[in-house]
Backbone:
């Protein structure tokens, strides 16, 4: 009987180990900041990851519907009113591997800057290594700008084809640096990119959601939700997980997938 019980416990332990740790726990470990963007109109944006990197709202950033059921609300950015969320924090300067993920629903794109678009998110410190932006162009392309060195980078802007982000529809966008490889994923598809120079003359405005320069055409017009910045690149499975079939994972989803074992699993082991 004792041997049977030992064998049974051993089998349960092996079975339990196959359930965890969850494969997406790594996202928690490499999260630099996460903004659920569920706050009321005119409120600052809280870092849901607990990192304390609160963003100050400017010019009354509104609210809108969330990217999917269960993700609360989003923040509504208005290009003509120059609305944005901002923080002066050099932690967002990324010279190593990193990724930026967000769900966006543009309300207008026609007035976005023709060369560099209107930013979903950015870190800009005046043409310095580690500066970056992720933006949407006037005809719907997505651009990932990154300064590997100080000053102009000849191939620092990487741009998709047109019509990747339209109006009145949610799109999941990921921009990522992994070693010397730069990728942009839209709706869980890795896009072909055209390389052009970053150019110089960018301002020192720190980390922003909703813009990457002070002029109006660089300000995003529409909804942004579930904004993630990581301190490492993401795997293909992690990008698929965040995409979630177009429903955009919330911070609670990431915590549940990457956190402790569920009570049901513990009960099966006779714990609790």
Residues:
């Amino acid at each position: 009987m004792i041997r049977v019980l030992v064998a049974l416990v051993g089998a349960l332990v092996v079975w339990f180990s196959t359930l965890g740790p969850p494969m997406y726990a790594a996202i928690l470990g490499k999260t630099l900041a996460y903004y659920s963007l569920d706050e009321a109109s005119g409120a600052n944006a809280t870092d849901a990851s607990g990192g304390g990197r609160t963003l100050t709202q400017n010019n009354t950033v509104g609210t809108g519907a969330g990217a999917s059921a269960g993700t609360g609300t989003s923040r509504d950015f208005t290009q003509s009113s120059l609305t944005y969320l901002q923080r002066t924090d050099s932690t967002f300067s990324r010279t190593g591997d990193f990724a930026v993920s967000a769900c966006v629903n543009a309300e207008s794109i026609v007035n976005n800057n023709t060369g560099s678009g209107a930013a979903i998110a950015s870190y800009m410190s005046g043409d310095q290594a580690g500066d970056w932006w992720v933006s949407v162009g006037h005809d719907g392309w997505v651009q990932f700008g990154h300064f590997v060195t100080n000053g102009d980078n000849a191939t620092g802007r990487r741009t998709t084809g047109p019509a990747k982000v339209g109006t009145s529809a949610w799109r999941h966008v990921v921009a990522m640096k992994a070693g010397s490889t730069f990728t942009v994923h839209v709706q869980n598809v890795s896009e072909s990119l055209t390389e052009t120079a970053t150019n110089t003359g960018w301002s020192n405005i720190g980390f922003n959601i909703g813009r990457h320069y002070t002029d109006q055409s660089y300000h995003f017009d529409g909804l942004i939700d579930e904004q993630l910045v990581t301190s490492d690149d993401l795997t293909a499975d992690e990008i698929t997980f965040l995409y979630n079939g177009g429903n955009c994972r919330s911070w609670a989803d990431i915590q549940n997938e990457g956190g402790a074992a569920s009570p049901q699993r513990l009960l099966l082991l006779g714990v609790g």
